Amino acid sequence: MKNTILYYQQGNSDKVYKASIETQAGGYIVNYAYGRRGTSLQTGTKTSSPVSFDEAEMIHAKLVNSKLSKGYRIDRQNGERIDVEAEPRLSGITCQLLNPIEESEVDGLLADDGVCAQEKYDGVRMLVQRDGENLRAINRKGLFANFEIPSEVKLALLSVPTKQFLIDGEGLGANYAVFDILKCGRKDVRDLPYRDRLALLEKTIISRLPETSPVFGVSSHTSQATKSALIDRVRDQNGEGVVFKALSAPYTEGRPASAGTQRKYKFYESASVVVNEPNSGKRSVAIVAFDDDKIVPLGSVTIPPNHPVPGKGDVVEVRYLYAFKGGSLAQPVYLGTRSDIGASECTTDQLKYRKVDAASILRKQLASESAA
């Protein structure tokens, strides 16, 4: 039914990982195989007995996502043999995902004129594929989205003379912020340096939009002064953060195991979590994340009056200051539901924990002992 082949090449490592959904006894099973390329692969299964297709697809997606998060890439030439009728929403496109940076790394990126900075918009990741007069949205999971592209955005993109393209950006309600182009005409341009893709995006798409278009290109800043000014402006406007991108780098699918050519610097932390239970009689819900097969409670978050209360199992986005080891988020703020993220992606790996100040703890202990 589905056979995904991934590979990992870095230094002396050259590994292969295969994940497949197969039919068995009227149901479906998820099998895997892994090992060094060119050797006999070790095999196993993620399902001890046949399950429904929906459950198998969820297990398969979690398996593939876990490998992508560790730096594996999909081998599209030999893998991704998919029964289109069984999974009609799969686009074949994998988003480039970004790792965060610490504040201590910012100065080096500001001084590097080979790196540009852009505002990180707080919306919904959305790639748009155009083929003639047809437009389709693709979400961050690589699926054709089950939401409609806003009509104003559609009209603007269909007005562009370029009849075939694939662009990447952030959906902002009735607006669309575009920051990359993956295909132009019939040509795949993902291997071009980012500076060349930006120039192509401006020439073929952005410069040809109507003057009052709801679609706009994200501004890029390259000098230390303009990058610093961007950070100050976005922070003053309570924006989410900025993104640093290497101008010489190609578009790299998935999330690298560490670092990467595109990094995000957020002014606050946010996490995608799962609603465990609505709190009875209150406008708040209990939220959890996953640590492998364990469910980790993260406390509760209040739902603002302008948002409907999400239901059990919904994936929601929560802003917070930091996480406490063992559970709960400090000062959580509800941002909304996430239709583009699966529950399997809501892991504790995304949480940023408060650093323990050993010296401060020792001072408090000594003060307490002195008072006693």
* Class inferred from helices and paired strands: alpha+beta
Proportion of helical residues: 10-25%
| String of helices and strands | EEEEHEEEHEEEHEEEHEHEEEEEEEH
Number of strands: 21
The CA-CA distance between the termini, in Å, is 69 Å
Question: How many distinct folded domains?
Answer: 3
Kindly describe this structure.
The structure is a single chain. The chain has three domains: 2-82, WGR domain (q64v53_bacfr protein fold, Single Sheet); 99-266, 2-Layer Sandwich (D-amino Acid Aminotransferase, Chain A, domain 1); 269-350, Nucleic acid-binding proteins (OB fold (Dihydrolipoamide Acetyltransferase, E2P), Beta Barrel). It has helices spanning 53-68, 106-111, 151-158, 194-204, 224-236, 358-371; strands at 2-10, 13-24, 27-36, 42-45, 73-74, 81-82, 99-100, 115-120, 124-131, 134-138, 164-172, 175-184, 187-188, 215-217, 241-246, 262-266, 269-278, 284-291, 294-302, 315-320, 333-337. The chain has 372 residues and is an alpha+beta fold. The chain has six helices and 21 strands. The longest helix has 16 residues, at 53-68. Strands 1, 2, 3, 4, 5 and 6 form a six-stranded antiparallel β-sheet that branches. Strands 9, 10, 11, 12, 13 and 14 form a six-stranded mixed β-sheet that branches. The protein has a five-stranded antiparallel β-sheet with strand order 19-18-17-20-21, with no helix packed on it.
Quickly list its features.
6 helices, q64v53_bacfr protein fold, 3 domains, 372 residues, alpha+beta, D-amino Acid Aminotransferase, Chain A, domain 1, six-stranded antiparallel β-sheet, six-stranded mixed β-sheet
